[in-house]
């Protein structure tokens, strides 16, 4: 009996224990499922999809690979905020970071009166000593403050090219900031004049590497106009400005508007400069131009505050008096007016003496007419040779008596005026100087008007009929890279550059071709170019590669011997890799053995159609030149001396580049 009781009690306890174990198991499973579900739901709400959640009792284990350390920490925070943070076990990995991005190499070059400063981050591989030597060579030894930091990373391929361009540009700019990166060079600088600005923009644009963007912010100071001149003419040819100056853009617009009301139809240039005699310059010019229109023609000339008004021949006296009287009353106080009313010519008077000098398009100068003495003949001849060229001057003027006392001054003044033209003529009479012709200088009209009015003073009776011809402008007529490449290709049409068989020696029959190519390159100016050598497929590929390079270098050396600037010309050999004909025929192989000239095409220059004299300027080669200050009046006692050719000699590049292999 006692055994049965013991067995019953034991069985009861065993059953209770088993039931407890089963209940505990269900409870643990429920807790695990609940914890796993809660954490997974929290991750889904926060778009954390890279984690894996596992549970083991009360423990919540996180696995997976986090993209960053921050993402791993965020997952831990989310899990710890969903369940007790002490239950979270972190077994997550962090994705290995890719290689550290290289730094951005950049340099600021600042040049001022006291030297040059270099600031920025450059590659550790940069030869700093060579950089300083190059800067010294470009700037004449200006002191340099080297504040550069370095980083041990490989620079981009275009870094060296951009830096070399910036250093070369530094030699042309006295005050500048140049920002250099591997893909862009930005230049901010002040040019000495508007003409210098045009030259700089053109040169920098042509020399810029084709893989580097160039940004220009060039400015030029307003020119000092001396004398401050304006000349407006209205005759049978229509209305025109022989010279125009203004002190502000607003004054320029007022003057041009007044000329438009008086009949000016073509586009006119008006130099904005300093030196105006009165802030009411534009007002006085408007009044004087309107007076010319009221007279029905004539001319008005301003030389600082002196105004000369010339009415058309035969103007009625009453009308002349009314217009001149009204102008005298209205002009600002500082201006002085002198008005003349020429009478019609009297045929009964003796013949008027004259002196005529002509300049032909070929540069020949012919002088004829009357001169007062043999000494003046010699003086005029010497003066002309100094202004032009000694072997182009012909004197055919005769010695005559009874000429005005100021005749020598007028003759030399006429020759000085003629030197401003590309070709044309000047006619000097006792009461008039007439200049006509063509020029490639937009500022020639202003310069001539200032010269004549300042020298003739109150007798400022002169006429200017000078036309700007873009074809004569050396800057405007520089051929484009495409035109240069076409001309170089055409030079080899008649007879291409040939070589001795299996050699890099240029054959004798190619001398004329090399001469033509050298002439073309001198016309094109300095630009980035490649001389590419090619061979046929006969022979070993490595030997053909070397032979093509040697031949390209031989052409480059021939250009150096012809005094062509070659600092931006590179020689490359392409061997047999780029055939343009069938290598299976003799004719095709002959065609494939060739030299090609490839001109780099720089990024197109954007800009407005015209450029103001001041303010930011971005690449525009169409800006008008400022009027140069007029030269001193010719003096019989101080004639210029011819000193020969003063052009700087070209120094050939001495880089070695020759080789010799068999084809």
Index terms:
six-stranded mixed β-sheet, alpha/beta, 663 residues, 35% helix, seven-stranded mixed β-sheet, 27 strands, disordered C terminus, 15 helices, elongated, hypothetical protein tt1634, 5 domains, Histidine-containing Protein, Chain: A
Please tell me about this protein's structure:
Helix content is about 35%, strand content about 25%. The protein has about 675 residues and is an alpha/beta fold. The chain has five domains: about 1-95, Histidine-containing Protein, Chain: A (2-Layer Sandwich); about 105-220, hypothetical protein tt1634 (3-Layer(aba) Sandwich), CATH 3.40.1520; about 230-340, hypothetical protein tt1634, CATH 3.40.1520; about 355-470, hypothetical protein tt1634, CATH 3.40.1520.20; about 480-525 and about 530-600, OmpA-like domain (60s Ribosomal Protein L30, Chain: A). Strands 18, 19, 20, 21, 22, 23 and 24 form a seven-stranded mixed β-sheet that branches. Strands 7-6-5-8-9-10 form a six-stranded mixed β-sheet, covered by helices on one side. It is elongated and about 175 Å long. The relative contact order is 0.08. Mean pLDDT is about 80; it is low at about 600-663.
Question: What would you say about this model in short?
Answer:
This protein is α/β, with parallel strands linked by helices. The chain has 15 helices and 27 strands.
Distance between the termini: 122 Å
Mean pLDDT: 81
Low-confidence spans: pLDDT under 50, at least 5 residues?
602-663
Q: What profile does the largest beta sheet have? A: 7 strands, mixed
């Amino acid at each position: 009996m006692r055994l049965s009781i013991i067995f019953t009690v034991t069985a009861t306890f065993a059953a209770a224990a088993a039931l407890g174990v089963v209940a505990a198991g269900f409870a643990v499973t429920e807790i695990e499922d609940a914890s796993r579900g809660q954490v997974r739901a929290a991750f889904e709400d926060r778009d954390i999809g890279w984690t894996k959640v596992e549970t083991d009792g009360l423990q919540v284990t996180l696995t997976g690979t986090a993209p960053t350390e921050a993402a791993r920490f965020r997952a831990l925070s989310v899990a710890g905020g969903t369940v007790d943070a002490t239950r979270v076990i972190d077994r997550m990995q962090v994705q290995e970071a890719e290689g550290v991005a290289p730094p951005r190499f950049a340099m600021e070059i600042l040049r001022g009166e006291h030297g040059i400063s270099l600031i920025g981050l450059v590659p550790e591989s940069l030869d700093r000593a060579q950089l300083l030597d190059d800067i010294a060579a470009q700037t004449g030894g200006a002191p340099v403050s080297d504040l550069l930091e370095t980083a041990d990373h490989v620079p981009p391929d275009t870094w060296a090219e951009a830096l070399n361009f910036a250093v070369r540009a530094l030699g042309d700019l006295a005050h500048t900031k140049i920002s250099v990166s591997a893909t862009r060079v930005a230049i901010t600088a002040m040019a000495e004049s508007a003409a210098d600005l045009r030259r700089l923009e053109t040169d920098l644009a042509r020399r810029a590497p084709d893989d580097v963007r160039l940004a220009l912010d060039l400015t030029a100071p307003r020119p000092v106009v001396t004398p401050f001149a304006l000349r407006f003419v209205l005759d049978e040819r229509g209305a025109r400005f022989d010279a125009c100056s203004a002190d502000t853009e607003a004054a320029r617009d007022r003057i041009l508007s007044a000329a438009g009301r008086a009949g000016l139809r073509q586009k006119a240039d008006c130099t904005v400069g300093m030196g105006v005699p009165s802030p009411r310059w534009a007002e006085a010019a408007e009044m004087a131009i309107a007076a010319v229109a009221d007279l029905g023609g004539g001319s008005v000339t301003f030389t600082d505050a002196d105004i000369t008004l010339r009415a058309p021949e035969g103007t009625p006296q009453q009308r002349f008096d009314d217009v001149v009287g009204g102008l005298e009353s209205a002009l600002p106080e500082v201006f002085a007016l002198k008005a003349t009313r020429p009478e019609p010519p009297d045929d009964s008077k003796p013949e008027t003496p004259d002196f005529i000098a002509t300049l032909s398009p070929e540069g020949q100068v012919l002088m004829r007419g009357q001169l007062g003495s043999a000494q003046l003949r010699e003086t005029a001849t010497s003066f002309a040779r100094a202004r032009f060229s000694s072997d182009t001057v012909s004197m055919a003027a005769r010695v005559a008596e009874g000429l005005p006392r100021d005749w020598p001054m007028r003759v030399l003044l006429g020759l000085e005026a003629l030197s401003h033209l590309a070709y044309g003529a000047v006619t000097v009479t006792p009461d008039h100087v007439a200049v006509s012709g063509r020029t490639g200088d937009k500022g020639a009209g202003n310069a001539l008007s200032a010269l004549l009015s300042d020298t003739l003073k109150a007798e400022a009776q002169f006429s200017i009929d000078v036309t700007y011809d873009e074809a004569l402008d050396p800057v405007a007529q520089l051929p484009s890279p495409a035109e240069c490449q076409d001309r170089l290709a055409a030079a080899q049409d008649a007879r291409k550059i040939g070589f001795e068989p299996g050699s890099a020696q240029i054959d004798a029959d190619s001398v004329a071709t090399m001469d033509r190519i050298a002439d073309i390159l001198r016309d094109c100016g300095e630009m980035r170019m490649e001389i590419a050598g090619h061979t046929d497929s006969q022979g070993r590929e490595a030997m053909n590669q070397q032979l093509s390079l040697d031949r390209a270098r031989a052409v480059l050396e021939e250009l150096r011997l012809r005094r062509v600037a070659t600092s931006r010309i590179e020689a490359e050999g392409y061997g047999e890799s780029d055939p343009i004909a069938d290598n299976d025929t003799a004719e095709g192989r002959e065609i494939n053995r060739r030299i090609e000239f490839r001109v780099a095409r720089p990024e197109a220059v954007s800009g407005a159609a015209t450029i103001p004299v001041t303010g930011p300027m971005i690449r525009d080669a169409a800006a008008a030149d400022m009027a140069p200050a007029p030269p001193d009046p010719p003096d019989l006692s101080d004639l210029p001396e011819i000193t020969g050719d003063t052009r700087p000699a070209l120094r050939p590049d001495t880089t070695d580049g020759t080789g010799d292999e068999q084809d």
